[in-house]
Write a structure and sequence with these properties.
This protein is mainly beta and about 120 residues long. Helices cover about 0% and strands about 60% of the residues. The chain has strands spanning about 1-5, 10-15, 20-25, 30-40, 45-50, 55-60, 65-70, 75-80, 90-100, 105-110, 115-120.
Length: about 120
């Protein structure tokens, strides 16, 4: 089994920063893409940022220039540095990982439990 555990959410004023972490553990051979998604009340879950195992990144237009995704492959951990936060960034943030569990298998997608980020104006 594989678990993704997120940390780092909380309440912050607009303009400030937060850093989210997500550590994958369990039966892991390798991890392909890792990413962050968010879901605000009454809205669909949306992609925030994704990073490949080689370090290529992609961001939602709404967070470009403010958020930075990174990963530590040795620790199976992905990070999301969120700067210049806005009230519209308020949401539950979920991490996501494409985990390969054996050398002969494809990947399966796993999700973290979510962490609340609230940005006050």
């Amino acid at each position: 089994q594989v678990q993704l555990v997120e940390s780092g959410g909380g309440l912050v004023q607009a303009g400030r920063s937060l850093r989210l972490s997500c550590a994958a553990s369990g039966s892991i051979y390798s991890i392909n893409d890792m990413g962050w998604y968010r879901q605000a009340p009454g809205k669909q879950r949306e992609l925030v940022a994704v990073i490949t195992s080689g370090g290529r990144t992609n961001y939602a237009d709404s967070v470009k220039g403010r958020f930075t995704i990174s990963r530590d492959n040795a620790k199976n951990t992905v990070y999301l540095q969120m700067d210049s936060l806005k009230p519209e960034d308020t949401a539950v943030y979920y991490c996501n990982a494409q985990v390969v569990r054996t050398s002969w298998s494809g990947y399966s997608t796993y999700w973290g439990q979510g962490t609340q980020v609230t940005v006050s104006s």
